[in-house]
Amino acid sequence: MSIAIRVRRTALACMLAATTLSVVAASASAQKYDSRSVNIGTGRPPVTTPAAPTPSRGGGSGSGYNGGGHRGPGWGTVVPGIIMAVPAMIPPSNPRFVDDGTVVEDIDRPRRPQRQRAQRPSNAPGANERRMVPDEVVIEVARSVTPQQIEGLQRRHRLTRIESRTMTLTGTTMFRWRIPDRRSVATVVRALEADRVVASAQPNYVFTLQEVVAKASDALPQYELDKLKLPQAHAIAKGDGVLVAVIDSGIDASHPELAGSIAESFDTLDKPMAPHAHGTGVAGLIAAHGKLQGAAPDARLLAVRAFDPDDKGAQGTTFNILKGLDWSIERRARIINMSFAGPQDPALGRSLAAAAKKNTVLIAAAGNAGAKSPPLYPAADPHVIAVTATDTNDKLFEAANRGKHIAIAAPGADILVAIPDGGYEISSGTSLAAAEVSGIAALMLQHRPDLTAAKLRERLMTTATDLGPKGRDAMYGAGRADAYGALVADDAPVAQTIPLPVERVSSDR
């Protein structure tokens, strides 16, 4: 028995040694193949690594590591315990060995292509665009972006943070950053657009108020009242309680014409508040109720200062307008008056679209850049009612913009307006016409609180007095607004379907 046991032990040892040697040989062969696959210089083609057989758990059918490679039962069924040590020495099913002995699995497996960001039109300004702050950019990021990511973004692009605001309308966060070196706005915008943290980037555009001051006056001619049929309209509604946001320069809330009209104020600027003629005049044309009569004398105003007076007038930027627009929506403004104009602005366009979805009536001045000017914004935005100006003879205000986007007209030439410190002056511009239409919209919403923004626009245009070429045109739009007509117009009655008599057919025929 002792001799038999020694023979069996010797046989098993030999079998294990043979297995070990075969595995080591396979390993050396794989290393040899892999080292050949590295091209040094040129001219030597890569050698494909042969795939190693797939190990089985014993009892194989002649392929793989079936108990030592012979046909018949594998070692796992003959000597329990020994086969457990063998798989540890068996290379993976699809390995490659590098020269340092490291096993790299699936190195030849094709990688899934990375998803590319959708190509979007760049918001970089054109070469001739000058209507922007020369050393600032406005960027938009998702709310989920962390402060650490923002800091990294700032460092990568070498920018200085000025301010930020989380926008209710778009559900994003807007940042205003300064370019501290001499890089152009276009260069920085393109670089930011390529950064995955940034949702959008653009210039901080500059907009201007649309008014031409003529002269001071003590007279009180208000020819626009009769033109717009406001006395008749006021017998029906005066805009009681309707919130109208005025995004403009500073409004003199102490002016007698506006006593009690300002519901709330918001200042987007970091400078001391100073009443300004444009903002005060526009507010008065909407809600004056002293010596003057506004289009909606009982309306409530949300006074938003977004324009800063300087020697050239008053200018406002993308960022400040966005802040004012967002605040106005938070305060549930039904109407937003925008008596300013400037370049097409992607960020402003997105906010206007979001405001329109909330059924907000958006009204803007067409602009005072003349017949040859391209469309100005926000008036040319599809969600906005663009208002042009006419004179006492229903002729188009000479400086008014033209275009297919013009919706309606209202008096805007030689209009008496309120100015700070209790004063008055004669002024002109599409800004003033827009304010009058905003007042008419307030009358309509008081009279029909459930009126949608789209229906209000339609009713304004269908009841307007046609001017110029017959039908809607690029100068007057649908024509001069008619406040009384817009109030008394009823929805077209729905035609009733009269059931026809049913002819009974006998089944006997």
Could you explain the architecture of this structure?
The chain is an alpha/beta fold and 509 residues long. The chain is 27% helix and 21% strand. Helix 6 (277-287) links the parallel strand 9 and strand 10 (300-305). It has 3 domains: 2-35 and 50-105, no CATH class; 132-205, Alpha-Beta Plaits (2-Layer Sandwich), CATH 3.30.70.330; 208-488, Peptidase S8/S53 domain (Rossmann fold, 3-Layer(aba) Sandwich). Strands 3, 4, 5, 6, 11, 12 and 14 form a 7-stranded antiparallel beta sheet that branches. A 7-stranded parallel beta sheet has the order 9-10-8-13-15-16-17, with helices on both faces. Strands 7-19-18 form a 3-stranded antiparallel beta sheet. Residues 20-111 and 492-509 have low confidence and may be disordered. It contains 11 helices and 19 strands. Helix 6 (277-287) packs parallel to helix 9 (430-447) and helix 7 runs parallel beside helix 8 (346-357). It has helices at 2-36, 147-157, 185-193, 223-227, 230-234, 277-287, 318-330, 346-357, 430-447, 453-462, 483-488; strands at 95-97, 103-105, 132-142, 160-166, 172-178, 200-209, 212-216, 243-248, 262-267, 300-305, 307-310, 313-317, 335-338, 340-341, 361-365, 385-390, 406-411, 415-419, 423-428. Keywords: Hydrolase, Protease, Serine protease, Signal. GO terms for molecular function: serine-type endopeptidase activity.
